[in-house]
Amino acid sequence: MGKEMRKHFDVLTIGGGPAGLAASVRAAECGLRVGIVDDNPSLGGQIWRGEVEDCTSEAASLLGRLTALGVEILCGTRVFDVAPGVIWAEASDAPCELGYKNLVIATGARERFLPFPGWTLPNVMGAGGLQALVKSGLPIAGKRVVVAGSGPLLLAVAAYLRKHGAELPILCEQASWSRLAQFGLALLSQPQKIAQGLSLKGELAGVPFAANSWPIAAKGQDVLQQVVISRNARLETLACDYLACGFHLVPNVELAALIGCRLRNGHVETDEFQQTSVPDVYCAGEPTGIGGLELSRVEGEIAGFTAGGNRDAASKLFATRRRFRKFAGALDRTFRLRPELRSLPLAETIVCRCEDVTYARLRQQRSWRAAKLQTRCGMGPCQGRVCGPATQFLFGWISDSVRPPIFPTRLSSLAAMSCDRQSEHSEVTGGD
Amino acid sequence: MRKPITVKVNGKPIVVPFGSTVAVAVMMAESACRNSVTGERRGPLCGMGVCFECRLTIGDDSYCRSCQILCQPEMEVRTDG
To answer: Per the structure, how many domains does chain A have?
Structure first.
């Protein structure tokens, strides 16, 4: 184990996706010392994963700017605790203490997973999850993949998998045709979104798209072999190698909550400059509400300019942000989950995958807290990041607190942090 | 294009493209990464370091999230944890 590392930044960004990259570049352009932290081995976030090597991509040009401006990049570094003006993180070899004057939280979103019989079988994965693995080297050519769940991510994933040679027997979207048609109308005010949609349409030619459709069960002996889907209220069984299944996205708000930023309806509340309820702490991108790439990027720019002291430049972007927020509203309405999905799990279906807690045990509980105390639901290593959003949908439970460490952390890192805090304390009190 | 890398998954050599994560090597070998608390075999779910389903043992380090770690030559990966 290496010795702990200490650094200090004028602006520190947590998260290296579009929002975090944009914020860091704008803050660095203001002439400040900027650092960017990401848990993944390289920057780009989920949407630009693996694209930073493609030098023609937007991701690569942002990354080029970042490097030219001298922004310090800390990848493979996971935040686990905070103190005022300080972030504690763990890199592969050592813990680090990162001081900041201004913090930009750009922690992105994760997929929402819903339990159904067989969803714990190997090769049943998130839609974004399977795409991430393919981007990380998994060969997919010739494999049969059922894509199912909800949200525009399914289309992007299906197009990507097909481009890389996968065979897609069907794409199931739980939303109804009428909701999707309204979404199409909402898109008319967003030329670039229509262009994206049309280019996807070409790549998706030949893939049957089924609205009003969702997975009922995954089957197989130790590994996935078949998926049963409900397609317009009729059951169909399909043989496949992978089920790529996610039900839209949920924002990663754990870090913001730990710092004490006010949340509303599960999102981080910000003012027009992306400032949270905590002074000098900004938030940009999906944690403020699921809105997609363009909204994330412009929110990041606003946060970066403001953190860098250039409020004039920030306020010039308000109109652009307003336009992209309309799209966010349309997303919410269109991909709201239908109540039928609450009856997918059977009594013996596992809901909490870390602690293997079944639906039968959970439905006897009154609250998230009671479920934790009585069944250990949400107390495994994912700390409720998977079962939390699922039980919120199934039972209406709200998880009521976030506690450090916000990720499983080595004892040596916790020890380094606590030594450090004690020495600070002794300085203040005179060491008695 | 850098050269492919060979790692061992439960003693079996697996060749992966340069830049692949350990989760990819395991999926090419056998799909599952770990045993759940009730003994079910489990494989990757989120692919982005959140769900911990892909955790496994690399060398002497247990509890490694295989989707967040790049393959290195000579890595010894075990999925019996």
So the answer is: 3
Which chain B residue's Cα is nearest to A410? B63
Q: pLDDT tens across B14-67, in order?
A: 999 999 999 999 999 987 999 999 999 999 999 999 999 999 999 999 999 999
- Bridge-based pairing of strands A226-231 and A234-239 is antiparallel
- The region of weakest confidence among A34-48, A124-138, A156-170, A173-187 is A173-187
Cβ–Cβ contact A353 with B under 8 A: yes
Whether complex ipTM tops 0.90? yes
Instruction: List the CATH number of the domain containing B20.
Output: 3.10.20.440
Whole-structure pTM value: 0.94
Which tokens sit at A235? 């059951």
- Structural domain including B73 reads 5-78
Residue span of the structural domain in which A135 resides: 113-247
Residues 6+ apart with CB under 8 A from A123: A220, A223, A224, A241, A242, A243, B27, B31, B43
Is residue A417 included in any domain, yes or no? no
Q: Tens of pLDDT along A59-76?
A: 899 999 999 999 999 999
Interface residue B6 vs chain A (CB under 8 A): no
- Residue in A41, A126, A138 nearest the CB of B24: A138
* pLDDT tens readout for residues A246-284: 999 999 999 999 999 999 999 999 999 999 999 999 999
3-state SS class at A8: strand
Q: Which residue of A has its CA nearest to B45?
A: A125
Helix (H, G, I), strand (E, B) or coil at A302: helix
Q: Which of A311, A332, A353 is the last residue of a domain?
A: A332
Is residue A289 in a domain? yes
Same domain, A81 and A40: yes
